Amino acid sequence: MLTKRIIPCLDIKNGRTVKGVNFVNLIDAGDPVELGKKYAEVGADELVFLDITATKERRRTMHDMVLKVAEHVNIPFTVGGGISSIEDVDDLLHCGADKVSINSSAVKRPELVNELSQKFGSQCIVVAIDAKQIDGEWKVHLAGGSIPTDIDLFEWAKEVEERGAGEILFTSMNHDGTKGGFANEALAKLSELVNIPIIASGGAGSVQHFVDTFTEGKADAALAASVFHFGEIPITDLKKELKKNNIEVRL
Amino acid sequence: MKLVIINYGAGNIKSIQFAFKRLGVDAILSDDRDEIIKADKVIFPGVGEASSAMKKLKESGLDAVIPNLKQPVLGICLGMQLMCRSTEEGNTKGLEIFDVDVNRFSNAVKVPQMGWNSIQDLKSDLFKGISENAYMYLVHSYYAEDTSETIATSFYEKKYATALQKDNFYGVQFHPEKSGKVGEKILENFLKLDIKS
After folding, report:
1. Domain total for chain B?
2. I need a surface site. Which of A103, B54, B128, B178 has the fewest CB within 10 A?
3. What's the pLDDT band for B136 if we cut at 50, 70, 90?
C-alpha cells in the first residue's frame, strides 16, 4: 500500500541550514548534505529545502547545494523559495532536484503553474499555499505569510490542481509554530476537494498530532521542522507509533 | 563495465548518474547510437509527458535503436512505460518491447500516486536479496497492466505491474535511484546481471 510520508523541512540561507538544528553526532550541523543523509538514514520519506537567501548569489549557492544533496542523498527532495520562472525550475531539476515548490510566484501569475507542469510534468510541481483563517474564512497569504490576499484557500487549491499542480503543500499560518496540532479541518476539506496529494504543514508538536492529521486531516504527508531538528520527535519512533495506530508507513 | 544512461532530454538523469556513482560506477550520458550499442549495460530513463518524450526519441532515431539492444537494458519510470505497447498518455504508441498497455489511474484514487509503495510477487535476479513488501519511491499517473511479463507488482487502485522483464529488457515503474538502500541494491543487482548474447 502507498504509505503516508514524513517530511522534514530545512530552511537554507546561503547554502547552509538555518535555525538551530540539534542533532547528535553531526560534524557540521549547518551542512544540508550531512543533515539530509542523516534524515534519510533515520527514515524520512522525503526532504524539503526552503531557500530564504535574499542575496544576488542566491541562484548559484542554491545550485551548488542541490547538486551536492542529489549526489549524496538517496531519497527524493523538493526545493522551494524564490522560484518564479521556467529557467529557475529547469536549472534546479538539472542539478538533481526531484520536485520544486512554488508559492507567491504562482499567485502573482497563475499561468506559471500551467507552463511548468506542461514543460516538466505535474509530478515535479508542488504548489505551496500559506493561508490564515480570518473570521472563519481561509485566505491565502504571500511572502512567507506576511501579506494577506483576498484569495480563498479552497478556490485557489482547486485552481492550481486544474492548472496542473502535482501536489499541494498547505501551511496554516494559524497553526505554524504553535506546536498545537495541524489544521485538520481545513486539510480534510482540501483533501476531499482536490484529487492530488496534500502535504500538511504547521503545528506539529507531538506524535498524536501526526496521527490526527493522517486520520482526521486525511493528509497524504506531514511536514515539520523544529520537532525533528531538535530531536523532540525522533522519526523512527514517530513511524513506529503511526504503525501502531494502523497508519501505513515505511519502516 | 561501461554503463550508458540514454540522454534524450527527458527527465532527471542527474539523480540516476549520482546513484551509480554512490555504487562506484561512472555512468556515461549519451545520445550517440554507437556508444549506446557498445555499452555493457544501458539505462533508459524518463520523467515527464509520454508523447513529447516519444517525439524526442524519434527525432534522435533512438526509437529504432533501443528495441534491438542485446545487453541488459533498464527502463525507469516513463522509460519503462515507453517500452510498452502503448500509453494512454497523449495516445502514444510505445516501443512495443513489452506486450502490455499503459493506462491512467482513475479518479477513485489521488493521481499522481506519489510516495512509497510496497512491491510484491518478486521474480527475476533484479530482486535478488530484496524482500517481498520492500518499499520503493514512485511518482506516476499511468501504470502498466499486470501481465505475463510482470516481475513485480504493487497495489494502487488495483494490482499493477511495477516491474516488467522480457529477455534482456527490464523496466521498473519506481525510482530505484531515489529509494534509499533498497533501491541501491536493485541497481547493484542490475549491474551484476549476466551479459547475454
Report:
1. 1
2. B128
3. very high
